[in-house]
Design a protein that fits this description.
The complex is a heterodimer of chains A (155) and B (202). Chain A is an all-alpha fold and 155 residues long. Chain A has seven helices and no strands. Chain B has two domains: 88 residues, Double Stranded RNA Binding Domain (2-Layer Sandwich), CATH 3.30.160; 80 residues, Orthogonal Bundle (Arc Repressor Mutant, subunit A). Classes of the chains: A mainly alpha (155), B alpha/beta (202).
Chain lengths: 155, 202
C-alpha cells in the first residue's frame, strides 16, 4: 500500500489543490488501513485507493465549505508561481478547471486508471469521462503559459 | 495495470518529494496507532551486523530480521501471518532501537523489552523462552539447551528453533553453538554470529 503514497498525493493535489490534499491523503490511507483486511487478494489496490481518495476529497471539500466565513476585505492573492521556489502555475491552471475535468485528468493520467474505472468512480459514462479529460487537457494547453503549442498551431 | 501516457504538460506539476511523504507517513502512523489499526509497526536500524528490520505489534517486538532474509519478504510474511495493517512507524520501535544500540555499544547485557512470541509455536517457542537464560558472554551447546527444555535428544530441533528465531540478537540464539566448539549456523550468517560473540567476549 505504501508504494502508492506518492500517486495518491498527486491525485489529491490535482483534485483539491495543495492546501487540502494532505488531509485527503491522510483520511484515504487511514480508511484504507481500516478496510484493508477485507480487500480481496486480487483487487487492484491503486484503483481502490483512488476510489477512497475520491470520496475523501468530496468530504474535505464539504468540510472546507462549512468552515468558510465571508470576509469583507479579500486579501491579495500571492503572486502566481514561485511561491516556495516551485512552479505552481500549472497547478493554478488545473485548479481553475471544473471539478469533473480535474478528477478525470487526475484519475486517468496521474493514477493511470482506464476511463471505464474513472467513470465507475466519478459516475457518468466512460465516454463522458474521456471527454472530461480531453476537454481539461485542451483547456490547460490554452491557460497554462508554459504549455508548448502543438505543432502547426499559431506558428 | 494499464499505464496511460501522461501528457508532457502534466509533468510540470510540482513533484511529490520524499520529505513530504515522510511527514504524511509519520502523521498517518500516529493516527493509525491512536485508532488501534496499526497492527504492525516497523523501522530499520543500522548496526555492526548490517541494517536490521525491527517490527512490533501492540504486544511487543515481534520480529528482528537480517538483511540476508530480504526485508521486503519479511514484511510480506508479517502482512500474511500477523496483519496487513503494517506501516513504517518508527516511534513504536524507539525502545527496541535504543536497547539494541546500547547492546552494540557494549553498554547493555540484558534486553528489557516486551516481546511478542506469536511467530514461534510449540517446541520452538519453548526453546526461545530458554535463550535469555544463557548469559551475556557465555555460550551453550544445542545438546545442553535440549536437555534444559526437557528433551535431551531433541538437539536438532533446538537447532531448527534457533535457525528460525524470529527475534535474533534480542533472543540470543547466537550463544547456542555446537558441542565441539564450532559456531554452527545462524540466521544472520556465520559472520554475524562470530561478530556478536566477539562483541560479548570483549
Amino acid at each position: 500500500m505504501a508504494e502508492h503514497g506518492a500517486t495518491v498525493l498527486r491525485v489529491c493535489r490535482a483534485v483539491l489543490g495543495p492546501a487540502d490534499a494532505d488531509d485527503a491523503w491522510s483520511e484515504t490511507f487511514l480508511a484504507a488501513l481500516k478496510a484493508y483486511p477485507r480487500l480481496p487478494a486480487d483487487a487492484n489496490v491503486e484503483a481502490w485507493l483512488v476510489t477512497i481518495a475520491h470520496r475523501k476529497a468530496i468530504d474535505v471539500t464539504r468540510a472546507a465549505a462549512r468552515r468558510a466565513v465571508p470576509v469583507a476585505d479579500v486579501p491579495e492573492p500571492p503572486p502566481a508561481g514561485q511561491a516556495d521556489g516551485r512552479d505552481t502555475e500549472l497547478a493554478d491552471a488545473l485548479a481553475a478547471l471544473p471539478r469533473r475535468q480535474r478528477e478525470a485528468i487526475a484519475y486517468h493520467y496521474l493514477a493511470g486508471l482506464p476511463y471505464q474505472d474513472v467513470a465507475a468512480i466519478t459516475g457518468g459514462s466512460t465516454d463522458a469521462a474521456r471527454r472530461a479529460a480531453a476537454d481539461g487537457i485542451a483547456r490547460l494547453r490554452k491557460t497554462y503559459p508554459g504549455a508548448a503549442l502543438p505543432d502547426g498551431e499559431n506558428s | 495495470m494499464i499505464m496511460n501516457h501522461e501528457p508532457d504538460l502534466l509533468q510540470a506539476l510540482p513533484a511529490v518529494t520524499e520529505e513530504e511523504l515522510a511527514v504524511l507517513r509519520d502523521r498517518l502512523a500516529a493516527r493509525a496507532d491512536a485508532d488501534g489499526v496499526l497492527d504492525v509497526a516497523y523501522r530499520t536500524l543500522d548496526t555492526p551486523v548490517g541494517t536490521l528490520l525491527l517490527a512490533a505489534t501492540e504486544a511487543g517486538l515481534v520480529r528482528v530480521a537480517y538483511p540476508i532474509e530480504g526485508h521486503d519478504q519479511v514484511l510480506q510474511a508479517l502482512a500474511a501471518r500477523v496483519s496487513p495493517r503494517i506501516l513504517n512507524a518508527p516511534r513504536r520501535l524507539d525502545p527496541a532501537a535504543r536497547e539494541i544500540d546500547e547492546y552494540f555499544a557494549g553498554q547493555r547485557h540484558v534486553f528489557d523489552l516486551p516481546l511478542d512470541y506469536r511467530l514461534a509455536t510449540g517446541f520452538r517457542r519453548k526453546v526461545l523462552g530458554h535463550l535469555p537464560g544463557i548469559g551475556y558472554g557465555t555460550t551453550a551447546s544445542y545438546a545442553t539447551v535440549a536437555a534444559a527444555v526437557g528433551s535431551p535428544r531433541a538437539f536438532r530441533a533446538v537447532g531448527t528453533a534457533c535457525a528460525t528465531n524470529p527475534l535474533p540478537v534480542v533472543l540470543p540464539c547466537h550463544r547456542v553453538i555446537k558441542s565441539g566448539g564450532d559456531l554452527g549456523n545462524y540466521r544472520g550468517g556465520p559472520a554475524a554470529k562470530q561478530l556478536l560473540l566477539n562483541l560479548e567476549a570483549a
